[in-house]
Design brief:
Chain A: It is found in: Cell membrane. The structure holds two protein chains of two kinds. Chain A is mainly alpha-helical. Chain A is built from ten helices and no strands. In chain A, helix 1 packs across helix 2 and helix 9 runs antiparallel to helix 10. Chain B folds into two domains: 29 residues; 72 residues, no CATH class. The chains are: A mainly alpha, B mainly alpha.
């Protein structure tokens, strides 16, 4: 719901919101696109931010491929439903055998896909009917969604310091750099720290 | 073509390409510990930056408004281990309430 509403609140049409959920199908990337465009960023900044967030799905694919062992059209479908949830559930079944892993992946992937898309449509239509989005708190729903997505990743002191530093950096750069760039720049902070550590 | 369409289609194409490439490249290409570590850090950096920019700015200008209340309530909800939909909903409701009073 939150995504569909956020997309429409930031100027996307209902159709575009639904296409993002159907085709991109990766929550963080989708929120990033509408967030960056909504903040006045260019299409290129929005795509770059969303794609940097999408790189983790590539790694999930690497992890899942040997378990699923699929080719052709089935691999295309498997790729599309390779997200945080499906990979997480599948790996949680590892001790119960390869069949449980496959089941976990496919059921979670399809289940999330169906509900995510239905709720996107509902949220987008709802937001379209609202008018002034601030009166319904949608301007706060988007940052709250980002916060909810990052929160489970802040597992240690190092992660929390990185998060706060990137937040402060992005705020400090917002009046200086074109919209969208302060966000993308933090990805490079993460890359440099990851290389050194 | 509008920026909205370019962003929608561009993001979708790259998102799928990334997912599909993961399923198709040899495992050893991406299993390097450094790549794994960077991969864990990038979402933390980007999502934190997005939280901040979306809460405290509008069109490249810094500002403090009802969103601060929404964000604060979301933080409290997360500390109380609320589920994701409740976090978003509580932020929206509190922010809307402040917007009406101000």
């Amino acid at each position: 719901m939150a995504f569909g509403a956020a997309a429409v609140a930031n100027g996307f049409s209902v159709l575009q919101a639904c296409l993002l959920s159907l085709l991109t199908f990766s929550g963080a990337s989708q929120f990033a696109v509408v967030g960056v465009i909504g903040a006045g960023g260019s299409a290129i900044s929005a795509i770059a931010t969303a794609s940097l967030l999408g790189t983790r799905n590539a790694l999930y694919g690497v992890i899942m491929a040997p378990h699923l062992n699929v080719r052709g059209f089935k691999r295309v479908v498997a790729a599309q439903v390779t997200i945080d949830e499906s990979t997480g559930v599948a790996l949680g079944q590892e001790q119960r055998g390869i069949d449980a892993v496959k089941k976990g992946f496919w059921y979670t992937g399809f289940g999330v896909f169906v509900f995510w898309n239905l709720f996107t449509l509902a949220g987008a239509l709802g937001a379209q009917a609202m008018g002034d989005i601030r009166a319904f708190g949608l301007d706060s729903a988007v940052p709250a969604a980002f916060l909810g997505l990052v929160w489970p990743r802040l597992t240690g002191k190092f992660e929390r310091i990185l998060a706060v530093s990137c937040a402060l950096f992005a705020i400090a750069m917002t009046p200086i750099l074109p919209a969208g760039l302060p966000i993308i720049a933090t990805a490079f902070i993460a890359i440099v720290i990851g290389m050194k550590r | 073509m509008s920026a909205f369409w370019i962003a929608t289609i561009g993001t979708s194409v790259i998102a799928f390409a990334l997912k599909y490439s993961g399923h198709s490249v040899p495992e050893r290409w991406l299993s390097h510990p450094k790549i794994q570590r960077i991969n864990a850090l990038i979402p933390i950096a980007l999502l934190s930056a997005l939280v901040a920019v979306q809460s405290f700015s509008e069109k490249s200008q810094l500002m403090i408004d009802q969103r601060v209340v929404g964000l604060s309530v979301a933080i409290i909800a997360l500390f109380l281990k609320a589920p994701f939909p409740l976090v978003v909903l509580s932020a929206a409701v509190s922010s809307a309430a402040v917007y009406h009073w101000l």
